[in-house]
Design brief:
Structural class: alpha+beta
Order of helices and strands: HEEEEEEEHHEEEEHHEEH
Helix content: 25-40%
Number of helices: 6
Shape: globular
Distance between the termini: 58 Å
Strand content: 25-35%
C-alpha cells in the first residue's frame, strides 16, 4: 500500500486541474467482526496519462490504534492530506493520527486538513483557477478501549458513520458496484464473504468503467486485534484468484439470467 490516491466520473478524469485527477472506487464495510476496506488503484489525467497509485493508507501504532484511510478525488488534494498527516506525526504536533480518543476525532482532523488543502488549491491563479479540487476519504479502524468505527469524510470536511442498517460506505465511482452490496451485506456477514463481495463489487465497476482499474487492494481489520490487518490481498488484473472469481461471477450471472421466467405474453396490456 502506498501514499497516493483516487476519484470519480470521466468528466473529472480529464486533466481539468493540471494535476492527476483520479477515477476510483473505494469502499469500507463495518462488520460485527471488524472492518473490510477495498479499493482500485487507477488514476487518470486524460487518455495519455493513466497511472497506478495505491489509495489505501494504513496508520498503525502498536497496542494503541489501527486506522486505515481510503482516498478518492483530486490527486493533488488527497496526496496533500496524506503528506500532512505524516508530517504532523513526524513533527510531534499536538493533533495527529495518534492523538484522537475516538476514530471520529481522527475523521474530524482529516476533514480539517482536507478543507484546508482544497481551499488552497482552489484559490490558485492561472489556467487551473476555479477548477474542482475536491476529494473524499473513508476512514476506519479502532482505538484501544473503543469500538471499531467507520466513517466517510465529504469534500466539505464533515462526515457520516456506517451503521448496522447501512454497513458499507462508498466513495468515487459508486453506482456500478452497489447492487451486490445491497443484496449480500449485513453487519453479521462473515469477513471472508464480505471481502469476496467487495472484490466482485470493484471488479464489476472495472468492467463498466475503464477509468477504474487494477490492482485491487482488499484488507480486513479484525475487531480488538489492534493489528495492522488480519488479512490483506492485492490482485493484479491477471491474478489467478481474480481471474477465477471473475469467470465464475460472469458465468453464474448468465446462468441465473437464463433461468428467469419468461415474460407472460398473456399479461401484456393492449396498445
Amino acid at each position: 500500500m502506498g501514499s497516493e490516491m483516487c476519484i470519480r466520473d470521466r468528466s473529472d478524469a480529464v486533466s481539468r486541474f493540471g494535476r492527476f485527477i483520479s477515477m476510483t472506487y473505494c469502499l469500507g464495510i463495518a462488520l460485527s467482526e471488524g472492518i473490510v476496506f477495498c479499493s482500485d488503484s487507477r488514476t487518470n489525467a486524460g487518455p495519455d496519462r493513466v497511472n497506478t497509485y495505491s489509495k489505501m493508507h494504513s496508520f498503525f501504532f502498536e497496542e494503541d490504534r489501527s486506522i486505515t484511510l481510503l482516498s478518492a478525488g483530486n490527486l493533488a488534494t488527497s496526496q496533500s492530506v496524506i503528506a500532512k498527516l505524516n508530517r504532523d506525526l513526524e513533527g510531534g504536533e499536538s493533533i495527529t493520527m495518534r492523538s484522537g480518543r475516538y476514530v471520529s476525532d481522527v475523521a474530524d482532523y482529516v476533514g480539517e486538513l482536507l478543507v484546508a488543502a482544497r481551499t488552497r488549491y482552489a484559490s490558485e491563479e492561472g489556467p487551473d483557477a476555479g477548477l474542482d479540487a475536491s476529494a473524499s476519504f473513508i476512514i476506519g479502524g479502532q482505538i484501544a478501549g473503543q469500538e471499531p468505527e467507520l466513517y466517510m469524510v465529504y469534500p466539505e470536511g464533515n462526515h457520516i458513520a456506517a451503521s448496522s442498517s447501512q454497513p458499507y460506505l462508498q466513495i468515487g465511482e459508486t453506482k456500478y458496484g452497489k447492487p451486490i452490496l445491497d443484496r449480500i451485506l449485513q453487519a453479521d456477514t462473515e469477513p471472508e464473504t464480505a471481502m469476496r463481495c467487495a472484490i466482485v463489487s470493484v471488479d464489476s465497476t472495472m468492467r463498466s468503467n475503464a477509468t477504474v482499474g487494477p490492482p485491487i487492494e482488499c484488507l480486513f481489520y479484525r475487531r480488538d486485534s489492534l493489528l495492522k490487518w488480519d488479512k490483506y490481498v492485492q490482485l493484479d488484473d491477471d491474478h489467478p484468484y481474480l481471474t477465477k472469481i471473475r469467470k465464475s461471477w460472469d458465468e453464474n450471472i448468465k446462468k441465473a439470467f437464463d433461468q428467469l421466467p419468461a415474460l407472460d405474453q398473456s399479461s401484456e396490456v393492449p396498445g
